[in-house]
Amino acid sequence: MTIREFKPSDHNACIQIFQKNLGIYFAMEELALFQNWLYNHSEYPYFVVQDGHKIIACGGIYMDSRYAKAGLSWGMVDPKYHSKGIGTELTLFRLKLIREVYPNQHCFIETSQHTKGFYQKMGFQTKNITKNGLGKGLDKYYMELNAA
Prior knowledge:
The chain has helices at residues 11-20, 31-40, 86-101, 116-121, and strands at residues 2-5, 46-51, 54-64, 69-77, 107-111, 125-135, 138-145. The chain has 148 residues and is of the alpha+beta class. Strand 4 (69-77), helix 3 (86-101) and strand 5 form a beta-alpha-beta unit.
C-alpha cells in the first residue's frame, strides 16, 4: 500500500470511490463539490492510497480562511477496504502533514454522524452539529483537533 500525490489521471478512480460511499457517507449533492475540488484543488495537497495498481482511498488537507484552521478534505475509502486500517493510516499521514505545513494550527473536519466516531478516536472533539447540514439525513459535525 502506497500513499502518493493525486494526479489528474486519478480523477475517475476517486469519483468511483465517492460514488461507492453515496447514501451513507456522502449525499448526491456533494458530488459536484467533490468534482470541483478534484479539478481546482491544486493549491492544496491531495493524495490517493494505492494497493498495487488500484486506488482504494483518497484525501487531502487545506487551510480554511473561514476558520483560520487547517482542514482535512474529502477523505474516503473504497467500502471493500473499510475496517482495514487504511482510513486511519491516511488520516495520520494527513495530520502529520498538517503539522509540517501549518505548524501550531488547530485542525478541523466537517463530517457526518456516520464518521464522527472514527474522528473522535483520532482525538477530534465535536464543536457544533448542523442537522441535515451535508444533505438530507446527513448531519454536519464540525470537529476540531488541538495543535500538537
